[in-house]
Design brief:
269 residues, alpha/beta, 10 helices, 7 strands, globular
């Protein structure tokens, strides 16, 4: 509830303290800020320190904490993924190694006109930072990209992050229609893209295509559930606008949130 770590995994605080030499209270301050999006005034009262010192601790320690937790976001071998496939994937979609989608985080309007233009999201009608998130079929986050301005398309983000470098030949990726322009790039790398059939203006889908669309949507729900868990960290909630000063550590916030949800109960029972 307060820091995003279950009681069973609370020993992680001690491990963090031992490996990073960050004071335990300062680790809790950082995690509480991400989980509850507490203001620095609240943290000042909670931890008995000045407002400016609370802000300084958060910005200074976050990269160190994310560096320690990043190994929990593991890019698994496709054979290992196949051995742990949920039942729904085993018949026709046993080659799927990951499911991808983009996550948009609202940010304050930047002061510079160039940054305003780069972060403007036509979809959200505001300034945002976008991240590519990938999870395995059983809901384990196995990749999160660095942040891109909201102006960037989903395809542009995939092309410009190092996601494809970590994929093996023969891998099958599950995505929505927004990634359709990726097919040619992935084909050249020996990677298959599985997505719902495209809908042309004025044309109707066949019964087979409608059935396929429903099946893929039911399988893609796992990445939606992962993103819902990420949004449970209040700093990353819908319409929770990130302060300009914190934007520079937003990549670290996302890494910490994804690492901690990998330690939570499995998405698929």
């Amino acid at each position: 509830m307060y820091i995003g770590i279950s009681k069973e995994c609370y020993f992680l605080i001690e491990l963090l303290h031992r490996h990073t030499n960050i004071n335990r209270e300062h680790i809790l301050l950082c995690l509480k800020k991400i989980r509850l999006n507490s203001t620095f005034s609240e943290l000042e009262d909670n931890f008995g320190i000045s407002l400016s010192y609370a802000s300084k601790l958060f910005l200074r320690n976050l990269p160190i904490i994310s560096g320690f937790l990043k190994p929990f976001i593991v890019n698994l071998d496709k054979n290992l993924i196949k051995r742990n496939l949920p039942i729904a994937f085993r018949h026709n979609y046993h080659n799927v190694s990951c499911i991808i989608d983009c996550l948009e985080i609202d940010i304050q309007k930047p002061s510079k006109a160039l940054h305003q233009a780069l972060t403007w999201s036509e979809y959200k009608k505001g300034n945002t930072v976008k991240y590519l998130i990938s999870c395995t079929p059983n809901g384990l986050v196995n990749y999160v990209s660095q942040g891109f301005g909201g102006r960037a398309s989903d395809v542009t983000i995939v092309e410009n992050c190092n996601f494809l470098d970590g994929l093996q030949q023969g891998t099958c990726i599950l995505a929505d229609r927004g990634f359709k322009h990726l097919e040619q790039i992935l084909h050249e790398k020996g990677i298959k893209l599985l997505r719902p059939p495209s809908v042309n203006a004025g044309a109707k889908l066949s019964k087979t295509e409608v059935r396929q669309t429903k099946i893929i949507a039911s399988l893609r729900i796992h990445i939606e559930r992962v993103i819902r868990r990420v949004r449970e960290f209040h700093m990353l909630k819908q319409h929770s606008v990130i302060n300009t000063n914190i934007c520079r550590v937003l990549d670290h916030v996302i890494i910490i949130a994804c690492a901690l949800i990998n330690l939570q109960d499995s998405l698929i029972k």
